[in-house]
Design a protein that fits this description.
mainly alpha; ABC transporter permease; transmembrane helix
């Protein structure tokens, strides 16, 4: 039971990262490699602040603001510098690695005996791993509510229109460059926040902890879509992402119970993501084959 509650808590916290990635990957419809630099950047800021005695709430907010800063850099490189978004993200990610080393002072820093959001007094009265679930649930619900409200405003609709059809959005007077910068800032802000939360949960920050985070976020998004389908409202899609994140962590737990090593997690993550992304293709082929048998469709 302890393993399951721990996994659910981890799924909720990783779901915050997936929600951030959703803004660029699904709404703006482009891959943002900044993710793998932003995540440890948020963790480094949060842990460094906590080590220096900063209040955990403020340290967590700083991780969000730090993430927004990396998103701003990528956004400016992409929109003003006319650098392709993939390369702009890689450039920011590469530069942030050195910044993380500067912030931490070394490759990794622990939080032994330091105050965090997860060891607040009222949370310590709860059973083992329940503080992670409570904190994860709080942030997941808060972010979903705020995103749902934002995306239904005129500004949010302009953001969505930019991802759907940039030329049409421009014809309507929407500044698409500003929308892209805004999207990258919000996305990376949430990813930095996830880094700060997971660093507090794990008790450390490491400059290499961002490797593979994009795959984890994409897996949560794809699994949520596969399980619940594509005919969802925007709000329910956000909820599906959190559930997809929890399912993904449960799959990893199952794999671990089957005797695989934690060293295999990234390989398994890539395989799970590949399978989930190919499921619609398999479903389509199966549907066509079924129609052929009934004589409805032509080969």
């Amino acid at each position: 039971m302890s393993l399951i509650t721990s996994t659910i808590g981890q799924g909720l916290l990783w779901g915050v990262l997936a929600l951030g990635l959703f803004l660029t990957f699904r709404i703006l419809n482009f891959p943002d490699m900044t993710v793998e630099g932003t995540f440890p950047f948020g963790a480094a800021i949060c842990v460094s602040a906590l080590v220096h005695g900063v209040d955990p709430v403020l340290a967590t907010i700083l991780s969000f603001l730090g993430g927004m800063l990396t998103g701003l850099v990528t956004g400016l490189l992409y929109t003003k510098g006319k650098i392709p978004v993939l390369l702009a993200g890689i450039l920011t990610m590469t530069g942030v690695y050195s910044v993380n080393l500067r912030i931490l002072g070394k490759a990794n820093v622990g939080l032994l005996n330091k105050a965090t959001l997860l060891n607040e007094k009222f949370l310590q009265k709860l059973p083992t791993n329940f503080p992670t679930i409570i904190v994860g649930l709080f942030f997941a619900v808060l972010i979903i509510l705020l995103l749902a409200v934002f995306l239904n405003t005129d500004l949010g609709q302009g953001f969505i229109a930019t991802g759907d059809n940039e030329k049409m959005a421009r014809s309507l007077g929407i500044n698409t460059d500003n929308m892209k910068i805004l999207g990258l800032m919000l996305s990376n802000g949430l990813i930095g926040l996830a880094g700060g939360l997971l660093a507090q949960n794990g008790g450390y920050a490491d400059v290499n902890m961002g490797i593979g985070t994009m795959v984890i976020g994409l897996a949560a998004i794809i699994i949520g879509e596969v399980v619940y389908g594509n005919n969802l409202t925007l709000t329910t899609r956000l909820i599906a992402i959190i559930i997809g994140s929890i399912i993904y962590r449960l799959i990893l737990l199952l794999v671990l119970q089957l005797g695989f090593s934690t060293n295999d997690f990234r390989l398994i993550s890539a395989i799970i993501l590949a399978i989930c992304m190919m499921l619609p293709l398999f479903e389509k082929k199966f549907h066509v084959r079924k129609l052929l048998k009934k004589g409805v469709a032509k080969p």
